[in-house]
């Protein structure tokens, strides 16, 4: 398979993975917001509002990256802590469901393009779940820390620069990618 076809399939898979992750978060945030503060423009299905160019390129060439998160204001939720947990978990659960669906779809259809498409869909959705469970602000795990212990969250925020520097070093030195590949290997054997 040519390199350009591989990049095109990756690009489609990245776009779908980002959309699968961010739209459920936006829907959860919209539904949990108190009706007084709710605005229709707060819930967007538009894919381009979630694409970050650098994160997109990293997804294409390093197999993981980032996207612009769904915007929400937790102070407008009916219950702030439960709302944070629900929004943080909505994207994660959607990606886990996507992994399961594409694993099943791979079993019932074939062809080299379809096999590559489902492989990338499973991999990217798996990667986004793993990375978002790292307690690095603004990733989902940091929202869970905030919901369960605001003191721990504020300590995390106080050290945010150091956490970000270490996280970016781990990304660019290949440790995060190696970690994802190590955990993905049992799934790859199933495929």
UniProtKB/TrEMBL annotation:
Its main location: membrane. CDD domains: S2P-M50_like_1. It comes from the Bacteria. The keyword Metal-binding applies. It is found in: Cell membrane. GO terms for molecular function: metal ion binding; metallopeptidase activity. Its cofactor is Zn(2+). Signal peptide: none annotated. Belongs to the peptidase M50B family. PANTHER family: ZINC METALLOPROTEASE MJ0611-RELATED, ZINC METALLOPROTEASE YWHC-RELATED. This is Site-2 protease family protein.
